[in-house]
Structures are given as structure tokens and as C-alpha cells.
Specification:
CATH class of the largest domain: Alpha Beta
Largest sheet: 6 strands, mixed
Radius of gyration: 19 Å
Helix content: 25-40%
Low-confidence stretches: none
Distance between the termini: 44 Å
Strand content: 15-25%
Strand order of the largest sheet: 6-7-8-3-9-10
Number of domains: 2
Oligomer: single chain
């Protein structure tokens, strides 16, 4: 089991004039195949945490380990999916989804065929010769997901990947992404401001305080919801109950921040 552990993580941004603490004493354990969401007020350090896990920045204190090995010192495969798809407009969809494999010197005909098969599985059959401008926003995000999964990442980081989409497209993508990630057994971490999205897709939800970001509450999504698809989960009575609990906690956090 590839266990991701975050050990007493602290991070401060320094400038010549000031020091701003973004994260304080973050410790948690995530098991292989879990889907985790981070919720909290804007500026609470959620994206900073993803950047540290991805190895893009080093924490001021603490460490992140994967199977007890420091993630900063190992060649771990981390997939990172953002709000924008960042597809190269001058490359075809096929060329875009091959980029990660080529950068890692792992392109092969077999890997290419696997990526194109996944493209078909998520509803993009026949678009491999298209350019990004010829696709809708939702289709582009699906292509970005294939590009991310093509390198077979150990961990998938999702930083508000659906927030720029209309509500109907967002719900469809939640359904598709959840189904795809569960079928691959991927460990996934989602940053979102959407309580409903977090409940519908996650096994556990970590609630952050305002800056400096601390984990103030952990919500375990009920088993009966985790066994349903995101769309089905939104219709279940347990969904509304958990939504109200999280809403109340978030409201109290925001009230304290305002005071």
C-alpha cells in the first residue's frame, strides 16, 4: 500500500518586508486509493499544500512521505490537474496527451495506444486530431485528465478542476472523473470551495481554518454515500445532513475570521 503521510508541516512565505505563515502543523495520513478533499476559506493554504505534495516547493518545516520515503527526494509520479487545462493550442489533442510521456522518455506505441483508449473511454473518441480550440471547456478538461493519467501517476492532485465550468458540465465531469479514478485505484486529493462536490466525490474531507491554515475538522463521508456515484450521492438524505454540518462549520470559521 502506497501510504502518503504529511508530517507536522509548516510553511511560511518570506519577503524582505514580511513573513506570512500559510500552513501550520499539518499532519495527516492518506491510504492508497483514497479520495480526499480539502475545504476552507480562500487563502487558507490549500493550494500551497498541493504544491508541497507535488514537490514544486519545499516546506519550511516538516515533510511529506510516500511509503516512508521523502517525496522531495524521490522520483514519485505526481499528476497535477488545475482549473485551467493548459493544453498547448498549437498541438493536437493526441500530441497534448503524449507530452508527459515524452518528457519522461516513456513514450512507446503501447503507452500511446493506452492513452488513446482512455480518451475514448471518457467520451472523446475521434478527437485526437483536433486542436484544443475545437473542443468545449468540459472536453478540454477531459483531455487534460487523460494527459495527467497517461504517465500513470502514484497520486493525482486536483486544484479546483471544475470551477470554471457551467453547473451541468461540472456534474457530468464529477461523475466521469470519479468513475475513472476509482477504476484506476488512484489516490486523489481535491482542493475545492464546493461543499457538495467534496461530499459527492470524497472518502474524507479535511476542513481548514483561515490563514494560517490548520486542519480544524475531519469529516468521514458515510459509507452509503461512498458507494454511490457523485450524482446519486447528491440525491441521498445523508448528503443533505453532512452538507449542513460542514456548512455550519465553515460559516463559524468565516465569522471568526471576520471578527
Amino acid at each position: 500500500m502506497a501510504t502518503l503521510r504529511i508530517h507536522q508541516l509548516n510553511h511560511t512565505y518570506f519577503t524582505k518586508q514580511s513573513a506570512t505563515t500559510a500552513l501550520e502543523n499539518i499532519s495527516l495520513t492518506i491510504e492508497e486509493g483514497e479520495f480526499i478533499s480539502f475545504l476552507g476559506p480562500s487563502g487558507c493554504g490549500k493550494t500551497t499544500l498541493l504544491s508541497i505534495i507535488a514537490g514544486l516547493i519545499s516546506p519550511t518545516e516538516g515533510k511529506v512521505t510516500l511509503d516512508e520515503k521523502n517525496i522531495q527526494q524521490m522520483k514519485s509520479r505526481i499528476g497535477y490537474m488545475l482549473q485551467q487545462d493548459y493544453l498547448f493550442p498549437w498541438k493536437t489533442i493526441k500530441e497534448n496527451i503524449m507530452i508527459g510521456l515524452k518528457m519522461m522518455n516513456e513514450w512507446s506505441k503501447e503507452n500511446e495506444e493506452s492513452a488513446l483508449k482512455l480518451l475514448e473511454q471518457i467520451g472523446l473518441k475521434g478527437v485526437d486530431s483536433y486542436y484544443p480550440r475545437q473542443l468545449s471547456g468540459g472536453m478540454r478538461q477531459r483531455a487534460a485528465l487523460v494527459r495527467t493519467l497517461a504517465i500513470n501517476p502514484h497520486i493525482l492532485l486536483l486544484d479546483e478542476p471544475f470551477s470554471a465550468l457551467d453547473f451541468q458540465t461540472k456534474l457530468k465531469l464529477e461523475e466521469l472523473v470519479s468513475q475513472t479514478l476509482h477504476s484506476f485505484g488512484k489516490t486523489s486529493l481535491l482542493v475545492t470551495h464546493d461543499i457538495g462536490e467534496a461530499i459527492a466525490m470524497s472518502d474524507r474531507i479535511f476542513l481548514f481554518s483561515a490563514r494560517p491554515g490548520k486542519i480544524v475538522k475531519t469529516f468521514i463521508v458515510p459509507r452509503e454515500l461512498r458507494q454511490l456515484s457523485p450524482l446519486e450521492a447528491r440525491q441521498h438524505p445523508a448528503y443533505n445532513s453532512l452538507f449542513q454540518r460542514i456548512w455550519k462549520e465553515l460559516d463559524e470559521l468565516e465569522t471568526k475570521t471576520a471578527d
